[in-house]
Amino acid sequence: MAPLIGYFMRNGPSGFGYNSTAEQVANGLDLTGKTYLITGVNAGLGYETMRVLASKGATIVGLARTVEKATQAAAKAGVPEGKFYPIACELSEPSVVRMAVREVVACRAGPLDAIIANAAIMALPKRETKHGVELQYLTNHVGHFILVNGIVKQLKPDGRVVILSSMAESMAYKKHGINFDDMTGEKEYSPWGAYGQSKLANLLFARELSKRLPEGQVCNSVHPGVAATELSRNMDQGPIAKFIFGTLGPMIALKSVGACAATQTYLAVHPDAKGITGKYWASCNVSTPSPHGQDDELAARMWKETEALVNSLEE
User: Fold this and answer.
1) pTM of the model as a whole
2) Residue 192: closest CA among 168, 224, 175, 164
3) Which of 260, 299, 253, 263 is nearest to 278 (CA)?
4) How many helices (H) and strands (E) does the chain have?
5) Contact in structure between 218 and 161 (CB atoms under 8 Å)
6) Which CATH architecture does the domain made up of 16-310 adopt?
7) CA-CA distance, 22 to 264, in Å (whole number)?
8) What is the annotated signal peptide range for this record (predicted)?
């Protein structure tokens, strides 16, 4: 049953909306001969996106923490072996991400029609760091920053980049949005503030990358909606989360996984999304992010600061 709120949400200008699924937005498309790179294919939205695209004939370059997880997920989704290229990519390990970049470049999948930066971790209850960086920021943003910049030259001239953000970007630390002077989270940490910071960085990354891509290539960010996926396995299980995911979820809050995967699928494959760039999307239509998410100066600073951080993490 669709969540109650969905009954009051009409489809937007794209013809799709809150209840639209990845299957529906890809309906009738023949993706034979097209290649899509997706991170986090082993579960949740990444798995569903892979399954739908592969069912339309696409070749998938599938990234997960291990080759085994990626391969098992592809087999479960019915992706033909000859159309699947599994690559290990632990986004919290810069050296592993760089290795994944080399493998993507070397694999015989061919030029990419789209990159879908989907993988994430969410709302860790306790502050964790790795390489001197708060773990959600490192995994969700920095890892994808290294990966996407490393493989973006593999895009076709009309290729697309889709970066998974979230409406949680509005929950980033209020004063600065991103605490560039506190990358460890030692001075200020909350599970949702840190998660929101990482999702704001994803949004700003997409916004800035859209300005740097050659003409013809596009980049957009996405709020997928809220689904009870494996993303929440490490999240803070406080009273608010329990209320949303438990009591209210089945009635009003939670989308199906198929509905949550719809917007990134739409942006990656739908003909009507061609040429649209630098936007923030929700329910398959252009939406409006927080004031921090519209700040071009903050986006430019985020890029510069992330480059410096990445350089400090060089092998």
Assistant:
1) 0.91
2) 168
3) 299
4) 11, 10
5) yes
6) 3-Layer(aba) Sandwich (3.40)
7) 8
8) none
Cα distances from 18 to residues 67, 140, 151, 301, in angstroms, run 33, 25, 32, 33
Amino acid of residue 291: P
Tokens 């800035």, residue located:
208
- Is the distance from CB of 54 to CB of 81 less than 8 angstroms? no
Residue with structure tokens 């969700």? 140
Contact 31, 83 (CB under 8 A): no
- DSSP letter string over 47-111? HHHHHHHHHTT-EEEEEESSHHHHHHHHHHHT--GGGEEEEE--TT-HHHHHHHHHHHHHSTT-S
Give me the active site residues, please: 189
CA 195 to centroid of chain Cα atoms: 13
- Which tens digit of pLDDT belongs to each residue from 119-146? 999 978 899 999 999 999 999 999 999 9
DSSP code, position 292: G
- Segment 38-50 shows an average pLDDT of 98
Where are the domains positioned within the chain? 16-310
DSSP 237-277: --HHHHIIIIIIIIIIIPPPHHHHTHHHHHHHH-GGGTT--
DSSP bridge pairs for 223: 282
